[in-house]
Write a structure and sequence with these properties.
- By secondary structure, this protein is mainly β.
- It is built from four helices and 35 strands.
- The strands form nine sheets. Strands 7-6-5-4-34 form a five-stranded antiparallel sheet, with no helix packed on it. Strands 3-35-33-32 form a four-stranded antiparallel sheet.
- 67% of the residues are buried.
């Protein structure tokens, strides 16, 4: 990828897309997995995402909330993206196939970050550096795009793969060439319930059927992990099913949220330990809880269609104790219809949308800041234990040329410490890592994607040079402006001077995890997945990269680590081959690892009848 001068659009790897999404994206939506407008000379355009494959006998687990724009099999989502690919500018939602997210196929296809551009094959070049943007709220362009997305009709789109071509040795501009890639197998969205299916209901407190784990372990072989539990759905859902948030592991508890309830389950046997109900449908959560286990969940203000995602409920995930709750101030103006996204940075939880942004104390809910209301407005945040990063949109003299920025802000005041401006028309997509700061950005018109690393002072550190590899991070969700977070992508990880990203590969072949040197953006080493499987980075674990190896019909899944110096993955848990079909059958799967236990959970639950609904497998745990 070539690096644009300051404010230059990033070009480069295909932005990750949600594996479970299908559809023909007209323009790359801001999916989880797409980076923000890159620093000075961003890379190229987005690479194509892995095609969703159909599962053979046993399919690998689906990826959790994917990144990038989904072009794959439709996945029902609260905002319509997941359910089915949307055609709006932000229309597609990343899918999460197999290890990469898609559920239906063992390696469900994952559209590239810009899965919405299936047909293009001409090379794309990064735009020339653009002048700094001006001020102001959302531009008219975004207004039109947002309106289009809101009215978009769900449709299944062809899968497109984006190849990322990095800056060559001759220092010529990087060119990213999207290439059409047929799915290895048909993918299917969860069955849609009938019109007569009931609407309400909460969990019955039973914790679900743990599915006979003794039987599941009966066929396991020497060296294979045991199945701690397999739970089935115990929630009476509305006709179109429900998105699942999580899983998160806190101590000896795994937590997930769905519809109108948040529940904690024992890692040992999957039994329900606690549950907190909310009056209306859950609609937003930060990517991760605080270091102390505090989490804030967003839920709708009423049961009416189109209700705003404006209510907040704090919960201590360690104990299941519900804390403060409050309403986010009602937004006003042209974009008042957008939903809030949530993020936790330091001791602050932020709620932001396309028209307003607020910060609240994580411990007591008191409002600590209101986002800027001038020419540049933050529309989403990303954070960790100490830092808070804001993605903003600024008004320029040309309504057709948006200016996006990335800033580090004080979690207690919301004031910017520094600001990095992307080139005009480049948009912030995702934050792959807060510390070190690695951002993804895309350019809608040219369908380009770029990944850039920033220094602690906001200057450009490097731009990732992807060469000819194809990458497909999964960010599990749709447009940021419709309630999806900047964070939460899988398939990427970072620590110190290194950024890790998994390549895309077709079913039946091994993919690789590539380590990039953040000092210059160049690849340092590659680690190949074992036995023609595919692996995806989840996060860092004790200085090493924690990866999930997706199962195949004749091979079980696994959890492994890769050393900082590279080499073959070291297996921590080898899942039983006998349950590979079950493991790979979770729709739009999400993953969590902690305390020696690995959990895979369905990212959405939907069925054609109440009876089938209760039979859907929702979560599975493995340990030594």
């Amino acid at each position: 990828m070539t690096q644009p001068p300051s404010n230059q659009p990033p070009g480069g790897f295909g932005a990750p897309q949600d594996p479970n999404q299908g559809g023909t994206p007209p323009v790359p939506p801001q999916m989880p997995g797409q980076p923000p407008q890159m620093p000075p000379a961003p890379p190229q355009q987005p690479p194509a995402q892995p095609p969703q494959g159909q599962q053979p006998p046993a399919q690998p687990p689906q990826g959790g909330p994917g990144y990038g724009y989904p072009q794959q099999a439709p996945q029902p989502g609260p905002y319509g993206y997941p359910q089915q690919p949307q055609q709006g500018p932000y229309g597609q939602q990343p899918q999460q196939p197999g290890p990469y997210g898609q559920q239906p196929g063992p390696y469900g296809q994952q559209p590239g970050p810009y899965a919405g551009y299936p047909g293009q094959t001409q090379p794309m070049y990064p735009p020339a550096p653009a002048p700094s943007g001006g001020s102001g709220g959302p531009s008219r362009n975004r207004t039109v795009l947002v309106a289009a997305v809101a009215a978009a009709v769900v449709a299944v789109a062809a899968v497109t793969t984006w190849a990322v071509v990095g800056k060559g040795d001759d220092d010529k501009p990087t060119v990213a060439n999207p290439t059409s890639s047929a799915s290895t197998g048909a993918t299917s969205a969860p069955p849609q319930p009938t019109e007569s299916e009931s609407e309400g209901g909460g969990e019955d407190g039973s914790g679900g059927d743990k599915g006979g784990t003794d039987d599941l372990n009966a066929a396991r072989e020497a060296g294979e992990a045991k199945v701690n539990f397999l739970t089935t759905n115990d929630v009476d859902l509305p006709r179109n099913g429900s998105e699942v948030f999580g899983p998160w592991i806190v101590g000896d508890t795994v937590v997930k949220a769905m519809y109108k309830g948040v529940a904690g389950y024992s890692l040992a046997d999957g039994s329900k330990k606690w549950q907190v109900d909310v009056p209306f449908k859950l609609c937003a959560t930060p990517a991760q809880p605080s270091a102390g286990g505090l989490m804030v969940f967003g839920y709708e203000e009423s049961a009416k269609d189109g209700a705003k995602c404006s209510m907040l409920q704090q919960i201590d995930l360690k104990t299941g104790k519900a804390g403060w709750k409050k309403a986010v101030p009602k937004p006003t103006g042209l974009f008042a219809f957008s939903d809030n996204t949530l993020a936790i940075g330091g001791n602050t939880v932020t709620a932001a949308g396309s028209s307003s942004a607020y910060g609240f104390s994580l411990t007591d809910g008191r409002q600590v800041f209101t986002g800027p209301t001038g020419d540049c407005k933050p529309y989403a945040y990303a954070g960790d234990a100490t830092k808070l990063i804001a993605a903003s949109q600024c008004r320029t003299g040309d309504v057709n040329k948006e200016q996006h920025t990335v800033s580090e802000v004080d979690p207690n005041t919301g004031k910017a410490k520094w600001t990095y401006k992307l080139a005009l028309t480049w948009e912030v997509d995702k934050v792959y890592s807060v510390n070190p700061l690695v951002v993804s950005a895309f350019q809608r018109e040219q369908k380009k994607w770029s990944v850039v690393a920033l220094n602690p002072n906001g200057s450009v550190r490097s731009q990732i040079q992807g060469g000819k590899d194809k990458f497909a991070p999964r960010c599990g969700g749709g447009l940021v402006i419709f309630g999806r977070n900047l964070q939460g992508c899988t398939g990427v990880a970072a620590a110190g001077d290194t950024f890790y990203m998994a390549t895309d590969a077709s079913y039946g072949t091994s993919n690789e995890v590539v380590a990039f040197d953040l000092r210059n953006g160049k690849p340092k080493w590659r680690s190949k997945a074992p036995e023609e499987q595919q692996m995806t980075p989840l996060r860092m674990e004790g200085g090493e990269v924690l990866v999930y190896v997706a199962p195949k019909y004749d091979k079980g899944g696994a959890v492994a680590t890769i050393a900082p110096a590279g080499g073959a993955p070291k297996i921590l848990l080898k899942h039983p081959v006998s349950v590979s079909q079950i493991e790979s059958g979770f729709f739009s799967a999400g993953y969590a690892y902690g305390g020696g236990t690995f959990v895979v959970a369905a990212g959405r639950v939907s069925a054609s009848s109440d009876a089938e609904e209760k039979e859907i497998k929702t979560m599975m745990g493995f340990s030594k």
